[in-house]
Hints:
The protein is 47% helix and 16% strand. It has 152 residues and is an alpha/beta fold. It has a single domain, classed as 3-Layer(aba) Sandwich (Ribose 5-phosphate Isomerase B, Chain: A), CATH 3.40.1400. A 5-stranded parallel sheet has the order 2-1-3-5-4, sandwiched between helices.
Amino acid sequence: MRIALACDHAGFPLKGTILELVxxxxxxxxxxxxxxxxxxxxxxxxxxxxxxxxxxxSERGILVCGSGVGACIAANKLTGIYAGxxxxxxxxxxxxxxxxxxxxxxxxxxxxPELAGEIVAxxxxxxxxxxxxxxxxxARRVAKVRQxxxxx
Length: 152
């Protein structure tokens, strides 16, 4: 899978850890920056990552900022981007499995590298189950979310 990765200056210290984990898991990484702790604006990086998914350059994305909140809010403004803040492994895999989450948002000031690695692994290892027999309710719910999105 091709994974887009972007962060702001607050997320940069965790970026290297995530980059190594994604590559080590056999995925290709589209590194969208930033490349230092010099102050930048998180919406710019959220948009870059979201556009990469919209354009088919990547299948999923990982955004890292200080809390995960700002990057998540900005990413969710883009059509077809379903971003969630996850600071635990359950949310990271369940968000993909049940809710078709395609962007993982992490707060580098909230969690450390070890937990971040576990969360990223859970996100990357998950797949949407709404097309499986007996799991159609998830596809129905995601379709309702998409209908809300179209009403904007």
